[in-house]
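ping. complex inputs:
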Amino acid sequence: MARSTPEIPNASMADIAFLLLTFFLMTTTVQSDKGLLMFLPPPPEALPPEDIEIQERNLYKIQINSSDKLLVEGNPWFEDNRKLTDQIKVFILNNGQDPASSDNPVKAIVSLKADRGTSHRIFVEILDAIQAAYHEIYAERAGVTIKDWREISSDPDNSQKPEWKELYDKGRGVRPDGGVEIPMNLSIAEPSKVGG
Amino acid sequence: MSKFKKKAQTKQEIPTSSMPDVVFMLLFFFMVTTKMRETNINVEQRMPQATQLKKLAKKSLVAYLYVGAPKKAEEFGVEPKIQANDVFIETKGIIQWVNSEKAKQDEVDRDAITISLKVDNQAKRGLIADVETELRRANARKILYSANQKLEKDQ
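pong. complex structure:
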């Protein structure tokens, strides 16, 4: 037995593996598909041409100009977004108590109008504040945290979580006829062309 | 004294023979959980921040549009552009692009496609509104404004 057993040196194995690992770390991306989900209306050509009358009190108007300044219900807005969320919540859940505010959540519409020169950053911030108001209302009604609500509403038809559908309907208040008590009435108007 | 001697004889080396196994495990983890970068993004991508983020349930049903100022300003100018699959497209090319993306999906899922708009912070709303109008015409009406989680103190 003088023959020596041939051995592959494996001291460098770790180095090779590290090299591969580094390669994959550099060339791949962790998919971060997170953001604000929105549903666009049908194309402008398919919409009925008639004017729909909306009462002033049922409309919560937010306007942003080309220098990213806000006008909320006709007044300049300097507060933070948290306060905006709270005000929108009060507006949606007014139910006719304050005659200057909305009649009921079905009629209440939050309108967001930007300018063509508005930056995307501020637009997303305000859209976030509006969605936060609705999500907080929904989450409270369904009795879950806001974080859970966002997860539920991302995928209400999840086959692994059958209870999600129920919670989703409870939060939005689905009536037996299929209507929703608190629909997310968010209107994004065509941007104005004042400053481009 | 003999007690101390015994202690001095214990091995002090960390065994390294399992190191390749550990690293390979890490490697496989990254290989499985990540996806190869398919496109080179040629526009600036500084994501806006938001709190009400939602995840997309079906990742295979997502098509990406990148909007922002071109990285090579001397070649393409400073005005924000739309990038889809490695090329810059104009707003009127969006319908065609959506249709080609839809054609990649199964027939039942075609109208459930989500367009993920990865828009730079500084891009203007006017361009995005034009993109949205075209997406409405192309009947791809579920969109996602890509954003990063905002860190908040009070939440």
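Residues 62 and 148 of chain B are 18 Å apart (CA to CA).
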